[in-house]
Amino acid sequence: MPPSEAASIPAPLGRLAAECAAWQAMLNVMGEEEQALIKGEADHLSRLNASKLAQLNTLNNLANARHEVLRAASLSADHVGMNTWLSQHGQPEHRSQWQQLCQMEQQAQAMNLRIGKLIEMRLASTRQALNVLIHATTTQGGLYDQAGQSVAAHTGKPLTAA
Asked: What percent of the chain is helix, strand and coil (3-state, nearest 5)?
């Protein structure tokens, strides 16, 4: 599309491509997060969290800008408002981009649920391991020093006592 046509596109329509790209980037990060959880690569998650936060900020800024334009046009800042805006100003490619954006939002929600379940599984596994260790230390006196070597619990009198 020539620059003169691009300048005549109302603001929400011109930003749909940027919003779609931002959602795709978010889905990519979430996919990496999901794989890291599946593989048990906890160290990888902190780097992904920073990237995920940046993507969330970008998505939030783009959505807020779209909402402002919709409200300024006396439309609701939601899917209904955007569909109304598209019926008034949009071209077929804009409707297609909006549908793609809505689909990516649904994909992100589904992926977020899967990630939540994976985190729950990891937490349950960690809790179970901690419970085993706590039980072992309290019932059998099996303690470990800082180097990971087993140390007998101190019960009774020391060997040097008379």
From this structure: 75, 0, 20
Q: Write down the pTM of the prediction.
A: 0.72
Dihedral sign for Cα 52, 32, 18, 94, please: negative
* Contact yes or no for 62/13 (Cβ under 8 A): no
Which residue in 51, 50, 81 sits closest to 68, CA to CA?
81
Q: Are 47 and 11 in contact (CB under 8 A)?
A: no
Chain segment 40-96, per-residue pLDDT in tens: 888 899 889 999 999 999 999 999 999 998 998 899 999 999 999 889 887 888 899
The domain locations on the chain are 3-143
CATH code given to domain 3-143: 1.20.58.300
Q: Which two tokens stand for residue 31?
A: 């996919």
